[in-house]
Amino acid sequence: MATKDPIVEALKEFTTCDVSDALQKLKDPEVRNGGFLSGLSNWSPTRQQEDTKIVGPLYTVKYSPLDDPAPKLAKHYIDSVPEGAVIFISSPRVPNAVYGGLMTARAKYQKAAGTIVDGRFRDLQEQRDQAWPLWARDVGTAAPGEVVKVTGVNVLVELQSGEDQKGIRIHPGDYAIADMNGVVVLPRRLAEQALPLMRKQVEADTNMAKALAEGMTFDEAGKKFR
């Protein structure tokens, strides 16, 4: 059994919005939009209907077009997914799916935390039958082999989904937090700074929400608790 990461355990009590708030306060020049990755939403076990959440270090998978000079990975990436990892698959914008139900069966056996597909996936019913936490850009039916190939594992990738976020970099080993609000990446190097800010913000928001419910104006509550 893998040793529990204390950062992962601490992050489990926070939402993606809490993480984004903390990252925006840190104002790190390499982190845009509070670490939010646009264009990705929850599809399984249900479609944005339950309190599905994953937290874990990123295991990145890079798909490239077939004509890319980089060689295709010799072995299937799914067999080397570490326990507790969040699989992040980066795909060019193609109509083909790059992740399916059989990969989930293996990932589940490996005790991965869940999957984020910056692209299309397939076998939606299989994903739900396996109660697998999955976020993606969209669904598809065709397998990927006719248009793309895997050229890297645990390498730097760039977000492909959000047209307004071109150039967003995703590093292997950074922390992914995904829930009904979407997907946020917390750089590992900022985690220790961000966690105290999350706790402080949640306490302030809890007090503010109580005051608002009791009739205090938003301006008054903001000045008092924030």
From TrEMBL:
Source domain of life: Eukaryota
Cofactor: Mg(2+)
InterPro entries cross-referenced by the UniProt entry: RraA/RraA-like (IPR005493), RraA/RraA-like_sf (IPR036704)
Molecular functions (GO terms): 4-hydroxy-4-methyl-2-oxoglutarate aldolase activity; metal ion binding; oxaloacetate decarboxylase activity
Keyword ATP-binding assigned: no
Keywords for this protein: Magnesium, Metal-binding
Pfam families in the record: RraA-like
Keyword Metal-binding: yes
Record-listed substrate binding positions: 100-103, 122-123
Matches recorded under PANTHER family: 4-HYDROXY-4-METHYL-2-OXOGLUTARATE ALDOLASE, 4-HYDROXY-4-METHYL-2-OXOGLUTARATE ALDOLASE 3-RELATED
Name of protein: Ribonuclease E inhibitor RraA/Dimethylmenaquinone methyltransferase
Organism the protein comes from: Emericellopsis atlantica
